[in-house]
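Protein chain data
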Amino acid sequence: LENQIIDKGVLTFDKGVAEDKSGEHPMVQKRTESRGKRRNYQAEKYRKWQLLELLIENKMCPLTIEELNEWKHYKKGIGRKYPQSKNFIDWLRFDFNSDGKPDFNLFDLDKHESYYVFRKLVISIDKKHTTVFQNNPKIVGRILYQLVQRRGYNNLQDIEEDEEAKKESKTIMEGGGDSGAIGVNEIKPYIEKYRTLGAALYHIQKETNTRIRKRYNLRSHFEEEINEICKVQQIEHFSDKIKHAIIWQRPLRTQKGNV
């Protein structure tokens, strides 16, 4: 018979996008985000290794080059070994005489003080304070290591890009975003009054009686603090190396292969 329907049904095709409770998004989005996080962790390790090597060379850290290399270089069948020496662990805890307590007593401070007090005192021109730091260069080294762990956000307000960049810049300066973090504008008056980011954070913590969490800080403020520390502690001869280690940013991947 002519003109008869011999089959019926619907052909379906898989979507070219992924879907979850928040809606549709590119399938590669999660993979891209995960790769970005891995790269950030990797870059942070590079900065820590470079700074630690510099501190070891200048006797500002109790580690040895051999211990650092065990963490820095991967060995087949062994992997990387994070330093576990008591001197290094005590150094991380601001316990420079290994008595089991942070050494606030060096500055006649209460044992319940905040670690941020070291960043406040390291820029002090008081002779008593400068003498303590000169006699204990490992304290300065530990303060610099604290800076390398959180180096702040790039100065996005100086970048004239697309609307997304401007929106991100506004969030960093005024606060908000998904995390509800506090913006840079809140701390600016404190920096003007107390000279550095570390000193400003210490006084904010004291005034509000809260931990320093969920806060946007600019990378330029970290750089200015490093300059002040190097100036007061008279280590300006290798300040450029310190800044390179702490402020260093992985260069963009070359695109010459796509040309």
Observations:
- The chain has a mean pLDDT of 88.
